[in-house]
Specification:
Mean pLDDT: 84
Order of helices and strands: HEHHEEHHEEHHEHHEEHH
CATH topology of the largest domain: Outer membrane efflux proteins (OEP)
Oligomer: single chain
Distance between the termini: 52 Å
CATH architecture of the largest domain: Up-down Bundle
Number of helices: 11
Shape: rod-shaped
Strand order of the largest sheet: 2-5-7-8
Strand content: 5-15%
CATH superfamily of the largest domain: Outer membrane efflux proteins (OEP)
Length: 492
């Protein structure tokens, strides 16, 4: 009798402690901020470092695209400098002696023609005077070099260049930069989709474990109550002693399962916190449960959406455009480059040789030979186009398989959940009947324990099936490029 009394006291004490812990946890949870899955997703988008990284990449490509537009505009450069020569410049007259002799002959012949009568050479013709003077000057020794007395001088010029024709190079470069910007946008979207899928999975996992914990608590409380009833029945000498031992084992097992799932809940919450990038000091809780919703899924519609919105396919489309423009850039190397230019020279009077004030013109340039480099680069870019085309065909098949597999998984999980609903209802009713029979002295303790374990097993299987159902749908929507579409279905 004393042992039975001690057992009853222990059971009562355990129940008090357990109720106290529940109240304490409830109080702590009341102090926590409840975060819906939509709010959790916004936190993930705002705090995730990888998303910030790809945001910066998008900004980088925006400015690179703007820079590519500058190739259509003229370039204006101001060139300036200061030059110092160790010696004065000299004109090498030996290389222009013939020109100087010719110039002297022309001036001499012109002088004789004008003033021949005054100097007594009126009968000499201009041609005769020119040839005689050139012949005589050619017999003289070489002219001394002419020195330009200017060892230091400033230089300054304003130069403008406007491309007129580049064989399509500028247009291709602009389209290439735009494709890179689009690729950066798609990569950012892809990262967001990955974060959304991870967030949804981890959020659902926390909710799943919370529901499992709740089920474990129900079973544990039921086992405690059954242990107390068994102890009272033994005290009244209705049941044998070994029944209490079996009840204690059932309580211990239920408590062990509960503690394990409480640890799993803590780990799942840590993973969710990491995805949201929340500090450990921020306390939060998630939804207590998620209700089942019957979703109609049209496979052909989902597949069409995937072909349109899947980031991988969108990214390959941009890679295809980039390969096309890279080929256009290589083709432009076989075309001439034509540009207009203009130069305004400053400090002209300071220069040893005075250039004109303005110089304008049009210049064309075309490469004739560079060791077959351009031809080989052109062939390489043609193969790049074919590579991207094959990659796209492969990706389309993989996306089809991904959508189909997740669609089948979602349908199977849906059927499993629906089939388990009746099983759970039956197990719950079975537990109620066996508990009532035991309380009335008509049933056995082992029947109550077995019924409780059966209810726990079927209930947890149903919760897991529901979680698998929503997880499969989350994967399916991610596969088609619409992961956020899952949010309304798992919101209260």
């Amino acid at each position: 009798m004393k042992d039975l009394e001690n057992t009853r006291c222990k059971v009562l004490f355990t129940r008090i402690i357990f109720l106290f812990m529940i109240l304490l946890v409830s109080h702590v949870n009341a102090q926590k901020q409840q975060i819906s899955i939509a709010e959790a997703l916004e936190l993930s988008y705002g705090n995730n470092e990888k998303i910030k990284q790809y945001n910066e990449r998008v900004q980088q490509k925006i400015y690179e695209d703007k820079a590519a537009k500058g190739n259509f505009l003229p370039s204006l450069n101001l060139l300036g400098g200061y030059t110092y020569l160790s010696e004065n410049l000299e004109v090498n007259t030996s290389q222009i002696s013939t020109s100087l002799d010719d110039l002297g002959g022309k001036y001499g012949a012109a002088f004789i023609a004008a003033y021949g009568e005054q100097i007594g050479l009126s009968g000499v013709s201009t041609e005769s005077a020119y040839s005689t003077l050139v012949s005589v000057l050619g017999q003289f020794p070489s002219y001394p070099n002419m020195e330009i007395d200017n060892q230091q001088f400033p230089t300054a010029a304003l130069t403008a260049t406007q491309p007129l024709f580049t064989g399509g190079k500028i247009i291709a470069a602009k389209k290439y930069a735009k494709a890179e910007l689009n690729s950066a946008d798609i990569e950012l979207r892809q990262v967001k989709y990955e974060i959304a899928n991870e967030l949804i999975k981890r959020y659902l996992n926390v909710v799943l474990i919370k529901q499992v914990v709740k089920t474990r608590q129900e079973v544990y409380e039921g086992m405690l109550k059954h242990e107390e009833q068994a102890a009272r029945a033994i005290e009244l000498e209705i049941l044998p002693q070994h029944v209490l031992l079996r009840a204690k084992v059932a309580v211990a097992d239920a408590q062990k399962d509960l503690n394990n799932d409480l640890n799993q809940e803590e780990l799942a919450t840590m993973a969710l916190r990491t995805t949201m990038n929340l500090a450990d000091s921020v306390q939060f809780t998630v939804m207590d449960s998620i209700a089942y919703k019957d979703l109609y899924l049209d496979f052909e519609e989902l597949l069409t959406t995937a072909y349109t919105k899947q980031p991988i396919l969108n990214l390959i489309d941009q890679k295809e455009e980039m390969a096309k423009q890279a080929l256009a850039l290589e083709k432009s190397k076989f075309m001439p480059n034509i540009a207009a230019f203009g130069t305004y020279n400053m400090f002209r009077d300071e220069l040893p040789i005075v250039p004109p004030e303005f110089i304008v013109g049009v210049q064309a340039q075309i490469n004739l030979f560079n060791g077959f480099k351009d031809i080989n680069q052109l062939k390489a870019k043609k193969h790049l186009e074919k590579e991207v085309e094959n990659a796209k065909n492969y990706a389309v098949k993989q996306i089809h398989l991904l959508v189909q597999s997740n669609y089948v998984t979602a349908r199977n999980q849906q059927k499993l959940y629906n089939s388990l609903s009746a099983t759970v209802d039956l197990a719950k009713e079975n537990l109620r009947i066996n508990t009532r029979r035991f309380e009335e002295g008509l049933g056995k303790s082992i029947d109550v324990i077995d019924a409780s374990l059966l209810y726990k097993k079927s209930k947890i299987e149903q919760i897991v099936a529901l979680n698998g159902y929503y997880q499969a749908i989350a994967n399916l929507y991610t596969a088609v490029g619409e992961p956020e579409k899952m949010i309304p279905f798992i919101t209260k």
